[in-house]
Design a protein that fits this description.
Rossmann fold, 10 helices, about 290 residues, three-stranded parallel sheet, 2 domains
Length: about 290
């Protein structure tokens, strides 16, 4: 028997359906949820990501404000735009597309966003709240992974989870979310020794290396009936791939996310959820 493919598109559509109803309700209360995006420079991938986020917002009724800035934009100019968006009562979510041009300070930029409008959950305040289990806005990719667990009724309590990622965007926040759901979590990275043996003891492996030349998750690395969540995305022979050899791994695992069509759609869905939540906070609907 082969394992079950976790359909990120199906789960994201279920989330969007609920959000669409929430947006309709907010509009009936006189509030139109609004996401403002800031894109600096002309990186094609970043431009595509922002375009997709705007399209997703439009489909469920979220208003968007698009700020496209020159790659020559200074830190002071960027700070002023963020300050203006912070003060704009019609804007509920602010997203500065990363990575930034090298001359700009990513930490200073993200830290300047108002925590109640921080839909990426990257400000120090929201990172701290997440760590102590008090956050309302949660990082999009990690919370999207959690949503998939809930949707497929995958129990986390008491499970041994191995994370192969320690980034601020995925690994670190996901560690806290898993821990808050009573999983036992091991975080691995490029310096981890005996990675294969660690993964073979895991009930759930969540991988996000993003470079097939350095790491490929194959069936011999996991134990039978384990669960594999593939966060990575890269190109190989012109195709989008993750860390996992999907066709191989699904012969042994109980659940596997594909790439594309797995975690990716969930990241966008949770961005929409954070924007609606931020608007609700503005309306004092959420305490």
């Amino acid at each position: 028997m082969t394992g079950q493919r976790i359909d990120g598109i199906e789960v994201s559509n279920a989330v969007k359906e609920i959000l669409s109803r929430a947006v309709t309700h907010l509009k009936s209360e006189g509030l139109v949820p609004c996401l403002a995006t800031v894109l600096i420079g002309d990186d094609p991938a970043s431009a595509t990501y922002v375009k997709n986020k705007h399209s997703a917002c439009e489909k469920i009724g979220i208003k968007t404000k698009d700020h496209k800035l020159s790659s020559e934009t200074t830190q002071d100019q960027l700070n002023q735009i963020i300050d203006n968006l912070n003060q704009n009562k019609d804007v509920h979510g602010i997203l500065v597309q990363l990575p930034l041009p090298k001359h700009l300070d990513e930490f200073a930029t993200v830290s300047r966003i108002s925590p109640i409008k921080d839909v990426d959950c990257l400000t120090p305040q929201n990172v701290g709240l997440l760590a102590i289990g008090k956050s309302i806005l949660k990082p999009c990719t990690p919370s999207g992974i959690m949503e998939m667990f809930y949707y497929y009724k995958i129990e986390l309590e008491g499970k041994n989870v191995v994370l192969i990622n320690r980034s601020n965007l995925v690994g670190k926040p996901l560690y806290h979310l898993l821990l808050q759901n009573n999983a036992t979590v091991t975080t691995c990275h490029s310096k981890t020794k005996n990675l294969k043996e660690i993964c073979q003891a895991a009930d759930i492996v969540i991988t996000g290396v993003g470079d097939r030349t350095k790491f490929t998750l194959t069936s011999d690395i996991i134990k039978k009936d384990s669960i594999v969540i593939d966060v990575a995305i890269s190109r190989q022979d012109g195709k989008l791939v993750g860390d996992a050899d999907f066709d191989d791994v699904i012969q042994k695992a109980s659940f596997v996310t594909p790439v594309p069509g797995g975690v990716g759609p969930m990241t966008v869905a949770m961005l929409l959820k954070n924007t609606v939540t931020a608007a609700s906070l503005n309306k004092e609907i959420v305490s």
